[in-house]
Amino acid sequence: MDAFSIERSLIRLRVREHASYISKGDTVLATGASGFIEGGEEGLFVRQTRLLSRYRCQLGRRRPHPVTKSNVRQDSWMGYYIVPAPGEPVGDDAIAAAAQQAVELQVSRWVGDGMREHFVLTNFTQSPAQLRMTLEIDADFADIEETHGPRQQEGTRKRHWKRDGNVAALTFDYVATRDVRREGKRHHLRFDAGMTLRIETSSGSPKHRAGRIQFDIDLAPGAS
Hints:
Blueprint: E1 2-3, E2 20-24, E3 27-31, E4 43-46, E5 49-50, E6 52-59, E7 65-73, E8 76-84, H1 92-97, E9 102-112, E10 114-123, E11 129-139, E12 156-164, E13 167-182, E14 185-200, E15 207-209, E16 212-219
Parallel strand pairs: 1-14
Antiparallel strand pairs: 2-3, 3-4, 4-5, 6-11, 7-8, 8-9, 9-10, 11-16, 12-13, 13-14, 15-16
């Protein structure tokens, strides 16, 4: 039984306009203009393999509107987002009006041995805010070259969800096999990969359904 070889080198990504990159060692996070992973060649990469292939956030029925976002260091990033208070109209005018009366989302990220992320929601309105935060998550375990070309390696993906109070874990497992001939002999190659997303919340219990993790949040005026 052999394993697919893994090349330990810098991950090769093509820099694109409006994209954001943070990295440390063999780990690189590439996001789009939104600050999240929308698809395409974006993702969380470790040793030339993409783990997170989709990672998007929604507050209520709206995507959070980025106010400011920037790298802090090579391995860290921070972004601030707002959404109008629940019940307010949707649209660009609503975003402009929400500057003083909004729910704010602060996202802090660090990469290294994986990725760590910290979310803070603050209610800057004069009324209680009840909303659901949703994280849409997927992992495809694609090789770096497969992110901008046809998929060469198709394996079996499984996901497992486990929750214990305010702590939960979403685990992805991936196995791909193929047969090759080397020097006249047949070899069976196997590639195993996995990723676990561990979640800790200050209140409430996260839920998982159809590739989405959901948090029901109640915020008093001024509360975080």
